[in-house]
Write a structure and sequence with these properties.
It is a single chain. With 190 residues, the protein is an alpha/beta fold. 29% of the residues lie in helices and 27% in strands. Strands 3-2-1-4-5-8-7-6 form an 8-stranded mixed β-sheet.
């Protein structure tokens, strides 16, 4: 596993073996960031990210490599949270990140109380935990963590559909690649 593009391009990232961690594939990460930048490499400059169920931190680290100002990594597993910290330290980018070793549903109120407002929120729970998608999206909808023009991106199995709407969020796009899919959600305009 490696950083795909940007400042830390081709730098290796460590993963954990034998755990319930399924890092977002290089190919899917590349597709995700191609969609978000749409040919403008500076599109992510200065953005704020929240990487939920962060695992190895690969998506958030990719965002930092491509110009994000700050990434909040949320991971409940102690081993995975330590791995994210090690990956960040290896790239010397700890100052632009914060690792929260918390369950996502406890981390969201903590981030909200710190007045975090993100441009992008990425969520990638273990695929077998399908009920968590709706719980997380509904919990996010109850906060101000996503900026008005922000995007929530959910990675999921292509056979599973987290829904067209969830809380205040409406899916704007669904992208399938291999066995995985990305659903892009935005707040419904009132």
């Amino acid at each position: 596993m490696r950083v795909i593009a940007g400042k830390y391009r081709s730098r290796p990232l460590r993963s954990l073996k034998g755990m319930d961690i399924r890092p977002t594939s290089d190919r899917l990460r590349e597709t995700l960031f191609d969609v978000l930048t749409a040919g403008n490499p500076a599109a992510l400059d200065g953005t704020i990210w929240i990487d939920l169920y962060a695992g190895t931190g690969a998506v958030g680290i990719e965002a930092l490599s491509r110009g994000a100002e700050m990434v909040y990594f949320v991971e409940a597993s102690r081993q995975a949270a330590e791995l994210i910290a090690e990956n960040l330290a290896g790239l010397k980018i700890e100052g632009h990140s914060k690792v929260l070793k918390l369950d996502v549903l406890h981390a969201l109120p903590a981030l909200a109380s710190d007045h975090v407002a993100a441009n992008f929120i990425f969520l990638d729970p273990p695929y077998r935990m399908q009920e968590v998608y709706a719980q997380t999206l509904n919990s996010l909808a109850q906060t101000e963590l996503l900026k008005l023009d922000g995007v929530v991106i959910a990675e999921h199995e292509k056979r599973f559909d987290p829904g067209e709407t969830c809380g205040q969020f409406r899916r704007a796009r669904r992208l399938v690649q291999g066995d995985a899919a990305l659903s892009f959600y935005q707040r419904e305009r009132q």
